[in-house]
Amino acid sequence: xxxxxxxxxxxxxxxxxxxxxxxxxxxxxxxxxxxxxxxxxxxxxxxxxxxxxxxxxxxxxxxxxxxxxxxxxxxxxxxxxxxxxxxxxxxxxxxxxxxxxxxxxxxxxxxxxxxxxxxxxxxxxxxxxxxxxxxxxxxxxxxxxxxxxxxxxxxxxxxxxxxxxxxxxxxxxxxxxxxxxxxxxxxxxxxxxxxxxxxxxxxxxxxxxxxxxxxxxxxxxxxxxxxxxxxxxxxxxxx
Length: 239
Description:
Subcellular location: Cytoplasm
Largest sheet: 8 strands, parallel, barrel
Number of helices: 11
EC number: 2.6.99.2
Subunit structure: Homooctamer; tetramer of dimers.
Shape: globular
Enzyme class: transferase
Keywords: Cytoplasm, Pyridoxine biosynthesis, Transferase
């Protein structure tokens, strides 16, 4: 069954625009769980422009589904992971000033660094996932490092979907099957939406998890959070 993890970064962005605690990030995360989300994802960045490190600590105390923290494993991020011990850490090669994630790791190039990071996370009992593209040799390198999962960066699929969805998904199907043959569990995320999620899920039915934030929170402005989560869940194979 493919699980839906809701990325609540956009809720923090809205809160931070005015200061104070409206909207209440903790309440929204708990509502997401209550409405059927099977996980909560956060991506704290060094400048804390949306999710703050304290948010991560506060969420860990109340989240009862899977808690996934994404980010570039700089020392402060790793200190937070050690303190909080989420269920999963997704390693993303973001530059400090990145607007949003825009590429996966070149795993071979960063082999020594990632090997050390994965070892630390596994020692803390945390499941690991490496954010990657669809290059098969890169997947080979990820498997060789001993990561538990990879997360496929799906922006290229979302961009190409309107023109030719079969062509758009083809490299992701190939990458997913290759990852599975290597013993890697598979996540996916970035620009997945109500428009393109069902076809992606049907094409790769053995996905473990999708992490969705921007599109889901935007849809909730029109549909309401409960109905939005219901619709995203209905797009997933196995629901």
